[in-house]
Amino acid sequence: MPDFPLDLIVDILLRLPVKPLLRFRCVSKPFCALIDSPDFVKSHLKRSTQTRNHLTLILWDYDNRVSSSVNFDSLDNAVELDNPLGSSYWPTRIVGSCDGLIGLRNRGDGILAIWYPSTRRCQELPYTKTDYPVYAKHEMYGFGNDSIIDDYKMVRVQFFQIGTDDFVSSVKVYSMKSNSWRKIRDFPYYLYYGQGCAVLVGSALHWVVCRLPSDTAKFVAALDLTTEDYRVVLQPEFSDNAFDMNVAELGGCLCILCDYDQVRVDVWVMKDCGVKESWSKLFSVAQPEAIRSFDSLIPVAYSKSGSKVLLLQDNTKLVWYDLEHKTIKKIKTHGITDGFELFVCVESLVPLNV
């Protein structure tokens, strides 16, 4: 180890991206031990998340065959990525992103995997069978971290509709630590949308649901990855309920998106998890005042200064929304395809040790 104070060395290394850190592991055994240590891995991830450094946007097109990455700092070019599951036949879909790891699923053959874009490593998960002898009407997934035992988990929820207005479900959880699946209590609500990827906030996965297939009343349900219990998220008091509901994550907080078709989108943020009184309306984007026309808007991330929010418009383009001036600025990103899902991925040293 160089003859410098250890605290200074650690402080310098914590500021670096993942790729040079992986190279520096080869400098010496002490360097390797330091960079691989759990404390350093957690500190590096925490700093990157808090400062919004080393962020990459993963764009997955609707054919689920071509993916690309965009550097968050520049947002200028999309760089094509190889399909980590190596399939040109079965469409691949992202089912969640957490701490630099990304959950994947092949639609046709059902292969599930965890992908580490920083090192391009990909590990397939063991197969788990369907509990019912009929094809699932709906299927949804989620991926996140159980912070208490520091374990990464993937969740698969399958719905089987019975008759016109009843259903049963089957929920299984994969643990990276044990490299195995196990069944947990059935999902008590019905997925409102036909297929859904959960929104991860903290250690809980969130979906828009209803109580029965015929219900039009929608609400947000969560699955706590630590306790593996379900809960209903208390909603703000809306003055007008004539909207389509969606959920998102922004700055570590849960968002409810209220889409008043062809009129505006309101973005509500829950600043304290589980506290109804902490809901506040962060901003609204109206047509045609802010944007001439749009079908959907999804918040992606705050700018480094916190004064702007990056939005995904119509799943085809990125725009900045200025919170103070309430204005929109278009972003020109070369190489992106029309029609894609977007996931924020922070570079991390979290080991893919399945």
Key structural traits:
354 residues, mainly beta, 5-stranded mixed beta sheet, 5-stranded antiparallel beta sheet, 4 helices, 26 strands
Write up this protein.
- The protein is mostly beta strands.
- Helix content is 11%, strand content 44%.
- The strands form six sheets. A five-stranded mixed beta sheet has the order 11-10-9-8-13, with no helix packed on it.
- The chain is globular and about 70 Å long.
- The two termini are 31 Å apart.
- 31% of the residues are buried.
- The mean pLDDT is 88.
Question: What is the gist of this entry?
Answer:
The protein has about 350 residues and is mostly beta strands.
Q: Can you count the beta strands?
A: 26
Mean pLDDT over the residues: 88
The major sheet is characterized as: 5 strands, mixed
Q: Whole-Å distance between the termini?
A: 31 Å
Secondary structure layout:
Layout: H1 6-14, H2 18-24, H3 29-36, H4 38-51, E1 55-61, E2 67-71, E3 78-81, E4 92-98, E5 101-106, E6 112-116, E7 121-124, E8 138-146, E9 151-162, E10 166-175, E11 180-184, E12 190-191, E13 195-197, E14 199-201, E15 204-210, E16 219-224, E17 230-232, E18 244-250, E19 253-260, E20 264-270, E21 279-286, E22 297-302, E23 308-313, E24 317-322, E25 327-330, E26 340-346
Parallel strand pairs: 8-13
Antiparallel strand pairs: 1-2, 1-26, 2-3, 4-5, 5-6, 6-7, 8-9, 9-10, 10-11, 12-15, 14-15, 15-16, 16-17, 18-19, 19-20, 20-21, 22-23, 23-24, 24-25
